[in-house]
Design goal:
Layout (H helix, E strand, L loop, with lengths): L2 H22 L6 H17 L8 H13 L6 H45 L7 E4 L4 H12 L5 E5 L7 H10 L4 E4 L4 H4 L5 E4 L3 E2 L5 E4 L2 H10 L4 E4 L41 E4 L6 E4 L2 E3 L1 H16 L1
Parallel strand pairs: 1-2, 1-4, 2-3, 4-7, 7-9
Antiparallel strand pairs: 5-6, 6-8, 9-10
The structure holds ribulose-1,5-diphosphate (RUB).
């Protein structure tokens, strides 16, 4: 390998390690964005590798494992890395690169397709409540606005990382009238809400949804007030390993995200960042392959992965 080519490969390795740091530090967050942020440098590294040799696959798997470990409970991240690993086993370097490319296109077009389908569930002059910072749910609200539905949005602050601030900025930028509320104000405002749209970090085979902590509480309150709740979820959110949400590991992060170090003593601070919303509380799953109920979502995901694997 020429010195120039080996320098290019080294550069791509540095970018890949930087991407891993970005995900670990929460600079990049949101289930889909994380998976895309891992796939792109993996693809670029592979392309810079030159002709496939005896160590290529070992190195690719090593990098995929490293990227996956940045948020070990991230299901789309796992699915994307698994696609690359499996494709490299079956089709070598060319297979791995095709799988990465497929994932990037799939995740890109899915967002637009979900926005179009979910916007159809938002009636004229509706108020939509959303939680955290889901690109899929935000896309749906913006699309309904673009279609002239005169929608308003309410976004939760989303403790402890306050991702709701990103959500209100994105909605305001798109000129959607939007209010920001603290998480505990959801029940208070539900009487003004026509529909709840949230994203998903993962979906179990039975349709249980893992999403930002607090989603379950919102879903219970929405059910009680007869407000429909839709989950905007790309099929690559499916956790094929999990029969129900209980089998999906919930990420617990440091206590310091909630209270400054040393601020309180002798108290255990728990910081689970996701929770499981039972399928029974979900009004529908808006995927890029259609809007379905809990029984349909696994079937759609399986078809999508079969198609992606070729
Ligand atoms: C983000 C979060 C989002 C989902 C879906 O949590 O819970 O609702 O990831 O997002 P965090 P998207 O900030 O901890 O990553 O629809 O963009 O995939």
């Amino acid at each position: 390998m020429s010195r120039k080519a080996s320098g290019a490969r080294k550069d791509k390795e540095i970018l890949l390690l930087q991407a891993a740091r970005d995900i670990r530090s929460m600079k990049v967050r949101g289930a889909t964005a994380i998976a895309r942020h891992a796939v792109l440098p993996l693809l670029r590294w592979s392309r810079s590798y030159g002709p496939e040799d005896a160590t290529y696959r070992r190195r690719l798997v090593g990098f995929a494992d490293l990227l996956e470990a940045t948020r070990p409970t991230g299901v789309p991240l796992h699915n994307a890395m698994e696609l690359a690993r499996t494709a490299s086993r079956r089709g070598g370097k060319r297979g791995a690169e095709a799988a990465c490319q497929t994932f990037l296109e799939w995740s890109n077009t899915a967002r637009t397709e979900i926005a179009a389908l979910a916007a159809d569930l938002i009636r004229r002059r509706s108020t939509v409540l959303t939680h955290c910072n889901s690109q899929a749910a935000i896309g749906a609200i913006i699309e309904a606005h673009r279609l002239g539905r005169e929608v308003e949005a309410i976004a939760t602050e989303t403790r402890p990382w306050r991702q709701g601030l990103l959500t209100v900025k994105a909605l305001a930028k798109a000129r959607v009238p939007v209010s920001l509320i603290v998480d505990s104000a959801v029940a208070h405002f539900l009487a003004e809400v026509d529909v709840v749209m949230v994203g998903a970090d993962a979906v179990a085979r039975n349709g249980d949804v893992v999403n930002k902590i607090g989603t379950r509480l919102i879903a219970h309150a929405a059910k009680r007030e007869k407000v429909p709740l839709y989950v905007c979820c790309e099929t690559f959110k499916m956790d094929f390993r999990a029969a129900t949400g209980r089998a999906i590991e919930i990420e617990e992060r440091e206590a310091t995200e909630i209270v400054r170090p040393g601020k309180i003593r002798d108290v255990e601070v728990r910081n689970p960042v996701f929770d499981v919303t039972p399928a029974a509380l979900v009004g529908g799953y808006v995927t890029e392959r259609g809007v379905v109920g809990a029984r349909g979502v696994h079937k759609l995901a399986k078809a999508a992965f079969d198609a992606a694997a070729g």
